[in-house]
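Before the break, one more example. Copy the sequence into your notebook; we will annotate it together after we see the structure.
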Amino acid sequence: MLSKINRLTREVDFALVKAKGIVFQEKDFALAVMNRGAGDSRFGFVISTRISKKANKRNKAKRILREVVQKTLPDLKKGYDVIFLAKGGVLDLDKAKAEIEVGRALKNAGLI
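Here is what the structure looks like once it is written out:
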């Protein structure tokens, strides 16, 4: 589980990243990235009910993405807010595929 200092929780923060951040498209999700300048990097995950009506499927996908982000946290640059915006294929990701995709996405965004 991501520590509290590495989580985006406030709706205002999500809206700010969506409005001012740069979006990087991947196959199963998009990343919205905004440079805050200082502090630890923070992450948020958005998987809407359009992806799946079942909460257990959405939560499983979030857990997998969070775990992968936590593993890569020591390698990431500090001072960024990042939101993972899920697409339909995110429900089919297992941990191995998620590690590859998240790693590629973070490299494309310049965070690793």
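The chain has one domain: 4-108. The first strand starts at residue 22 and ends at 25. Try to locate both features in your own notes.
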